[in-house]
Write a structure and sequence with these properties.
The complex is a heterodimer of chains A (651) and B (197). Chain A has 11 helices and 34 strands. In chain A, the strands form 6 sheets. In chain A, strands 1-2-3-4-5-8-9-10 form an 8-stranded antiparallel beta barrel. In chain A, strands 24, 25, 26, 28, 29, 30, 32 and 33 form an 8-stranded antiparallel β-sheet that branches. In chain A, strands 15, 16, 17, 18, 19, 20 and 21 form a 7-stranded mixed β-sheet that branches. In chain A, 42% of the residues are buried. By secondary structure, chain B is an all-alpha fold. Helices cover 63% and strands 0% of the residues of chain B. Classes of the chains: A alpha+beta (651), B mainly alpha (197).
Chain lengths: 651, 197
Amino acid sequence: MTIDERISAELRRHAPVVDEQVAWDRIRSAAPVRRRARAMKLVAASLGSFVLVLLGFILSPYLSSDSDPAADAASPFLGTWVSSDLVDGTTATLVIRALEDGNVEMVMHDDVAFYQIVEDPLGWVCSGGAATTTGTGGLQAENELVFPAPVATCDDQPVEGLPPPVEVLESLTFTHDPGTDTLTDNLTDNSETTWTRIDAELTSPWPIWPQTNLEEVREAQELADAGDPDYTWQLGGESWYQPSQNHTNDSELFARFLEEELGWEEFLWDHAVPHSEGVSYIRCAPDLTNPLYPTDPEGSGCAPTIDELRYETVKIRVAQLAGQGPSGIWVVTGWEMVEPFAQADPRVVEAEATALLEDFLQARIDGEGAEGLAAPPEDHQLSDELADREIPLLYATSSGARYERSEFEVVDGPVWPEGRMQFEVRLFAQGSDTVVEQVFSLQPNETGRLGLVYEFEPATTQNGMAMPVEYAFLDGEVTYRAASPLEPSDDGYREWDRLAIVGLLPDDDAPRRVLLFLADPRPVGPDCVEGPAPADAEALARSIGSDPDFEATAPVEVTIGGTPALQMDVVLARGASSCSWSEPQVSGTSPLLLKHAPVFLGHDRARLYLVDLPGGSVRVLTIAMITDEDSFETVLRWAAPIVDSIEIHTS
Amino acid sequence: MESPTQARWNPWKRSATRRNDVNEIAEQGDGRDEEGQFVRPASVEALFRQSYTSIVQSLALAGGDLAAAEDATQEAFAQALMSWSRISRYDNPGAWVRRVAINKLHNAHRSRLRGETAVQRMNSESSTASSTGEPESDLVLGLQRLPYKQRVCAVLFYLDDLSTAEVADAMGISQGSVSQHLNRARNALRAHLEVTP
């Protein structure tokens, strides 16, 4: 057997037994509760749209408000809207128009609807069939439109000869957000449905390509269903549910539209400027290399078409009008030329970056004014753990020596299209005996202006040695410093009350947990039941020392962060019971201490520091170094600087 | 409380001409249970029978917590049940459920940081599943010592037989990252195999 086969076989042999029936019963009982919770008044699921689209056409001449003051006040609500976030994630359509009496009228349609009756939580209307809801209402507040008693009618007749079921709803309310020009409704209690306005200019006529009317779309859908290759190319995939977010540059619908309708020969999906309401493409000059980015992997093949920097840019909307999901064909329902996308001029970027870097480095040599010229990243994976987000060694080396000169080199960029760059900076002190090296990036900020950003990775080095970074634990009650390659773990063992310091040590082939911080750890008693957290470090030491499953050294008084502490070394006693991995474990519940198989194995040794935290949010901080005997000294050596750097900040 | 699947028979029938996935679901066994009641998510149950156990097993091995794996997977299936009209249209609903379960497990794990859920868990009923009864192997214990992403990659690849592309999709990371995690996990687990021939 190969290594892979042996790993597979071993995992299969130890996979837990699962009770499917109990689980299924739980799921079935849980889901309806949630469904009811979301649908106290009514649940409207997915929507399709023929009727709505047709209604939109029919009603469109009436959509503009007249001079009636009431209608004017309601004008933000008038128009055709598409929902974007209903319970099942598909879209619905809503038409609101002004009436001559000053009120407004609404028609809402969904193709697959589930209406739940308030008074009878078990009563369901439509059960997945199409439904149309109509009503008359008016403004209740400035941005609130209320339909007191709209009527939902299932489009399907339940039994031939009988009228369709009807449900009268309660106070259907739409709230208009002027900032985003969107509507939200109160159809569900725990989640809001957002309605986005369909731009009349984009949707008229609708659909537009490649079919020209709804009847053609329906016929095309039937042919696509039958596998006709003349129409199956209009099918999308799973990712097409959000074409603007999950887009690929080789989508045939867009490509053919751009080529056949707009006459573009070369184009690129404009991923840099995604639009929530459509997909943007930029036009590339055919057969030309981008002169400003001749070697850029992506940008070299797309030269601008307007001038040296700007591209013709089009926003395209698509929709499924005759069927949803992977089997539904897509059509282009609107397009418009938008503000041309512009690539950054790499010459300008480099010049600006050079000037910025020179100012920044000179300020560091001068000893003032560098703070405002570069910043740490807004969002960093260790943002919560970093105690100090300042750029390290800003004005001096670790020994306090001032910088005397500097240099930098471009590591990467300018990268198309924004011109991002990366630089390695070197600052020299003590006659070049000391060299500090750091990496900075040139990135656009929220306003689009390029700025210098200090990357915490790779770490700042001084004469080749990684400089320690200060981190915080327990919301800053404990701080410590760790240097690359060690850092707080992102492997799931990084929480408020527990933390692993992890790194890939020399000669190791996988990252190793070098040190654990545990807040108020709970000893594990017989049957792997965790006991209460001991009152103080001494009580915890007694608990460990008296546990027959452990062989522990007598506690030795030491000092951690200026605070008295106890040090113990612990191994599992021969024949000790180790808790199963499938029991609640350290990473699953509150911090257990030792005796837990994934953390503490039979051939492992642990060095523990038990520290009282008087005045802190927890009583006992345990610092644990746990590893196999062979690696014990190595781990202690790597952990020592971290332990030595610990500072306690409780009162 | 009684669920809709146990409710009285809803006499309204669906249009025979409408073409959508709900219809297809309804046509499976007429979409009703033995009492003639409308059982819309019948295909969710099929999906459940097909993939529930494997998802729970892989998450339990990856997370080291069987009860948490069950909770996350059951929540994912409950979500699928609620949104079946959408989920059923996906090319691979099972992949969707697996990804949701992985995310829920990870989120649940992070939400426990202040102990609230731990207390709830301690007070809740115990897990309905049991372990295999096999002695813990060094390899499984070694797996638990791997970083989280390596663990998840390893179980999805070795236990669920997913391709690296499928693992990447399930975890929402790049295929290159999956290969890197798998390589590291394989190297780490190899040592445990050597002591367990």
